[in-house]
Amino acid sequence: MENTARAFSNGIRKDRGGILVIAVIVILAMLIVAIPFLVKLSGQYRVTEKSSRSISAFNLAEAGIDRAFWQMNLAALPAEHIEWTYAGGIGTASILGLTTSDGKVAGDIDLKIGPPAGTDPERQPLEGKGKVPYVAGRTVERSARVVLEEYFDSIWDFGFFVDERFHNQNGNFFMDSYDSGDGAYGGTNSQGTDVYFGTNSDGDQSWWIEKGGPSSEIYGTIAFYDTVDPAVDPPNPIDDPDTVIQVPKPEVFMSDEPKMTMQYPFDLPSVNPVNYPSDSGSGYDFKPWFTDAYKANAQSLDKYSSPPIPQVGDLNPGVYKGTLASGNTVLTPTEDSGIYSSFVISKGTVTVSGGDVGIMITGLADTNGVSTQGTFWINKGNLVIEPGSSLTLILGNTSFKLENNTNVNSSGNPPQLFILGMDQFTDNTTPYKNAMYLENNGVIKAGIYVPRADIISAQGKANIDLFGSAIAYSMDFKTNTNFHYDEALGEISNVHGGPPKWKIISWQEVL
User: What is the reported pTM?
Assistant: First the structure.
């Protein structure tokens, strides 16, 4: 019996051993069959991982382009900005250690810009390369490239500007922004900071509040263009903003970025009546005034040249109006639009009514191309622009003076009045000696663009309230001046200029 039990136990052990051997053989067989699949799966994982990192690298490349493109379209550099290093006309920069929202390092971006193509309009390439960590210190890299083209937007998008110099000698200076589209100036629609006052000059005291300005307040940014070349290697040092922009005390600045350096010079194209307005439907059209020959000559000029002062023979019938001298008068589009050699209002009111009126003030040229000086003068008067109407005033070879409590468009909004100066309206180039004088108290609401002339208060007794925008060769005030930039002007594109902007005209992946 005992032998029988032992034999049975041994049989069970043999069966178990056989099962184990069979199981091992089956497992080995399955492993042999599975190994190629595991190898393939591992390869597919590596491909998937590399593909995922490749997509991330491409996203980084595009993000770098977007970041550089955004910075190029700013008037001035922000505190955190891309630093370009130039060599041979090509700028390079890197954005390192870019992180995701959970704090993980996504990768790096290399950027390359230029060289400029030298075309008109200017074009230049911008390239971004995204680099994402992979294995063993290697990276996955992908690149994209765009071609940028320069363009100019509304010149009224900036606020206030002088090509050469701003000087407030004795009075206080106040600057802020508002939006006439939201109603009248005042209350919450005031003391906005969406405004620049700038200059193309970087000499000492190019922008200067001198003696009498301790109560000045500036809501916005004062900027200058540094004429040193950032593209040289090594870069030139940037001028000290405190020597270019001088104020009585730092506390006059009421915003976070009081002094800045512009990236580009402020473009100041000439006023050409034949090419005005830049965009159709945004102002009075002067072209029908002139003969085909005069228009052809004017349209052949580059954007930095005004046409010559017209002769009588350059004008179509009825355009030349001669002189206007009146205490009270109403200007309408059909009857009163035209060229005046003299426009004088004393102690009266000029009312613009019935739509868009266009007026040019200048002495006409003789057969030798020489013109006498015209006159624009309002003394103790008012210029009223009714709702639904507008006035575009072009200044040729003429003087310009508002004095003795004169109010210009004080009951209207700045987009209803544009005052533009041709190259002949200048006190900086012989033989013309024409400046814009604002004297002895007054309110003016307008977009003023006189790129070759000074805006001056010579008598030193005035309080000037200017609503809108003013761009001139220089400004020199002996008065208390209050500048209120109207943000609504930035939407009007009747004159293009200012800091250049860039648009993308082509895109491609770089393989």
Answer: 0.87
